[in-house]
Amino acid sequence: MTKKATLAGAFLLVLLIVVPLAIGASGREDLYYTLTSVALLSIISAGVWITFYIGRINIGQGAYALMGGYVSAVLVTAYGVSFWLTLPLAGLFCAVASILIGLPILRLRGVYFAMVTLVLTEVVRLLALALPITNGAKGIVSIPQPGGISLFGITLLPDFATLTNPRLAFYIVSVLLMALCFAGLYRLKNSRIGQLCQSLQQNEELASSIGVNITYLRVLAYAISSFLGGVGGAMFAAISQSIYPSSFTVADSVNFMLNCFLGGLSYVFGPILGTFVLYFGWDVLFQTGEFQLLIFSSILIALMLLLPNGLLSLRFSSKAKGAGR
Question: Rounded to an integer, what distance in angstroms lies between the CA atom of residue 277 and that of residue 48?
Answer without folding.
Answer: 17
